[in-house]
Amino acid sequence: MIPSAPTGGWPARLAIARRDLVEFVRDRRALFITLVMPMAMYPLLALSSTLGIRTAILELDRRQEAEQLVLAFSGEDAEAFGIRIGSLASRSAGRPADWPDTIAMRIFDADEALAIIDEGVADAWIAIPRGSIARLDGEGTLPLEVRLSTVRPPDRRVKEHVLTVLRGVADEVRLARLQRAGLPASLIEPLRIDFTGDRPAASGSAVREILPTAIAAVLVLLALLTATGAFYPAIDAIAGEKERGTIETLLIAPCSAFDIVAGKFLAVFAVTLATLVANAVSIALTTTVLGRFLPAGMVGGLPLGDALACAAVTLVAYVGLAAVAAALCLTVTAASKSAKEAQNTLTPVVMLIAALAGSALLPGSEGHRWLPAVPFAGQVAVARSMLSTLHERADAPSKAAADALPTPVGLGAGLAISVASSAAFTWLLLLVTASLVSNEEILFRGPDTAIRGFRRPPPRSRPTPGQGLAVVLMGFAALWYAQGLAPEEFVPALLIQQAVAVLLPLLAIAWWQRVDARDAFALRRPADSPLGTTAACAGGVLVGVGIFFAGAAAALAFWQDEISPEARRFAGQIVELVCGGPAWRAVLILAVMPAVCEELLFRGWVLSAFTGDHPSRRRAVIAVVAQAAAFAAFHLLPERMPQTFLMGLALGGMTLATRSILPAIVAHAAHNATPVLLVARSAAADLEAADGMGAAGLPPWAVMAAIGCLIAGGGLLAASRRGSPEKASWT
Amino acid sequence: MIEVHELAKEYRTGGRAVRAVDGVSFAVGDGEMVGLLGGNGAGKTTTMRILATLLRPTSGTARVAGRDVRDDPIGVRRHLGYVSTTTGVPDRLTPREVLDSFARLHGLDRSAIAARIGGLAESLDLGAFLDRPCGRLSSGQRQRVSLGRALVHDPPVLVLDEPTSALDVLGSRDLFGLLAGLQADGRTILVSTHRLHEIEHRCDRFLVIDAGRIVAEGSRETLVAGRPGGLEEAFFATIGRGDAP
């Protein structure tokens, strides 16, 4: 009775998704944490923060709206001095700018005034002793001591207002003295400045200051909580199945590992989407409730149509975020033996997601063209950009000003990039997960590695994928700290970064894991004969040079003048290094050292971690793509990422084809040495000419030469392997 | 039927290669029930996992119902029912849901699924707990569900890896009763166990595996060859532990 219908594909994926969803829904604790907790969390957060927000807004508005200055006077001439201020205050014209809206004046004896100030009843106390008015009406200078209240909330505007009032009195006295001397008033007023067109501060304008920050914080929180929605179902879906011993029965179903992973992804994705919806509903309801407690304008500042458009864009972007989060959590848990191990591994992943989402709020990141392509940061950036633009549009003083803001079409491009990037990342992660889930070593290896404690594991041939990624993550963290701790000088900073971010984590983990250095780092000759090895190295040089010119041509054509300040500064530092010393020193620092360190890490460690002990063609493809993506991300600058990614692909393929890291090191060194040698050969005038070439791009002959180098290099590499008994073979 | 020829599987542990299965060859004919006997680490589970396409052989060939495990793993899975050492039954699903989901994975349509679950509930006596979560079932009941899951697509070949390890004597007897019925239906069955007494009179033939190699093969009568201790004594003698207490 074996069914003749084909198995696998969507029916199998949906069957697995349905099975996993039913299992998840019956786990009440996970259901509560994933779906119900967010519904309770936003009201709690809102309640705890509402009072503070309300106080802050009211205080800001109080400062920006009507302001009252309370002055206490003492002394025998206090009343006459107060009358002069009152007379000035009653005039509508001729008063200094920034005059306080109202001034309350009280007269006390000295002891009372001191008490009043200490109690915070008045903003300032001024003693006006006998003879003060006579001195003002004469020609002397009246020294005044103003004591500010230390009890009232600190406000620098109080001091400014007191100064404004006293300057007003001084101006009156000055004019009277000029009149008595028969001099014109213009003598002391060479300029008269009147401001026009300044919008009066509206009630609730403080809201405009707080709103963008509040929206950004909520968007990051929404990203993080949506991603955590994938946490428990992902653990349950793969690591949990391994722990319960049910994964074996699933893996013998008549479908591919990708079908199984895709089915599990659909279930985890559905729960993550439900978490997103629960969070969104909770945010909407909480915002509605908050509207009753917060000052007008804080909530509901957008027309309904705009608000719905914002919600739609945010949801679409966050659906992509939910997909990447679900796939990422599955990938991580697929490499874990037990639920506990998966939980331990997922915790830093959630921190990474939080860091990425938060990075969308970094100064200068807003408006970057390719930011929407970065997972977790991109979705926050898209939603934030949409909300900010619509708020600015709603607040724009005129239609022309509103039209000058980015259009929804422009914002749609960011959304499209974000969705496409999410789909690509999700697909890639699912491929990696499918490779991991059927990995014999991960599936049937011994007990949870956590129980080994701090004993070094037994020797092994190659690192696991987890260990491969661990070094990259450690490298990122080290890169971060190195940037803060390294000296400002370019060369020492570069040396420390390579040592701390690449070599140290790599050597530490390689030593701890007792890997076979020959296998893990592909430390072999690329060919058996010296001639073959020479041909492979020559091929590496040509490929490296070709990649440089091809990458430069593509980058110049694509980015044109849109190079970030960081990239310009980096280029300037390189030119300075090359021009400031012998060329060999620059080649050593900029080409040889990074080539050795980074190739050992990416084409050695990470590549061998993903290809594993039993490489197949699919695993080889995944390994090459994974290490190229890590290599590109490691270079941090977005402008360099496409080029470094393609270079990673080429060098990864070269390493797998030759089974040796040597050609990749040579190619990397040649790639980096090419611009160094070009700059070293150029005079300053030539550099200026080259700078002008940026917008026009490389000349066609250079592009043709690059293609020629790549073809010749590839040919030499292929020729070097001819006749070699140990050829790379994939099944 | 099952055909295995010079099958080998090598693992790398502690930096050195270990051959868990080392040149194993055997065949199990249609309608035959064969017992795979061996101690811990002898290579039983590795052999069965290769047959179930969970592991890839390092060398040699293995065919199930004419399909090669390396070239046509999906075809093998469609013709094979596999019961692992663990029962492999999710706690939060009911037996009906377990059978339903695996029937869907095997491409059965809705009416066929209902009929198949009904048939299995009757033949494996699942009716009393068909809608109870598996987490609340006894070990014997869970093993029945596991067997039902392996049979849901009505495969001609069954591979059972220590199916009685979590069962008491009664459960074990019931399970072998069910297997006898399946064999009578013409199914090919390969079953492994540590408990020699419970399998001694159930199988047509036995394969004794030790250190990854088949060290003896034949019917009970051939292996026992008049030894008073029966199959257990013959097993110890075959693997060179005849003087063991």
What do these coordinates show?
The complex is a heterodimer of chains A (731) and B (245). Chain A has 731 residues and is mainly alpha-helical. Chain A folds into three domains: 9-48 and 207-441, no CATH class; 66-184, abc type-2 transporter like fold, CATH 3.40.1710; 505-721, no CATH class. In chain A, 70% of the residues lie in helices and 3% in strands. Chain A is built from 27 helices and four strands. In chain A, strands 2-1-3-4 form a four-stranded mixed sheet, with helices on both faces. In chain A, helix 3 (78-90) links the parallel strand 1 (68-74) and strand 2. Chain A starts with 8 loop residues before the first helix and ends in a 10-residue tail after the last helix. The model of chain A is unreliable at 687-695 (pLDDT under 50). Chain B has helices at residues 44-51, 73-78, 95-105, 110-123, 139-151, 169-184, 196-199, 220-224, 230-238, and strands at residues 2-13, 16-28, 33-37, 59-64, 67-68, 80-83, 157-161, 188-193, 205-210, 213-218. Chain B starts with a strand and ends in a 7-residue tail after the last helix. Chain B has a six-stranded mixed sheet. Chain B has a four-stranded antiparallel sheet with strand order 2-1-4-5. By secondary structure, chain B is of the alpha/beta class. Chain B is built from nine helices and ten strands. The radius of gyration of chain B is 18 Å and the shape is globular. Classes of the chains: A mainly alpha (731), B alpha/beta (245).
Describe the structure concisely.
The complex is a heterodimer of chains A (731) and B (245). With 731 residues, chain A is an all-alpha fold. Helix content of chain A is 70%, strand content 3%.
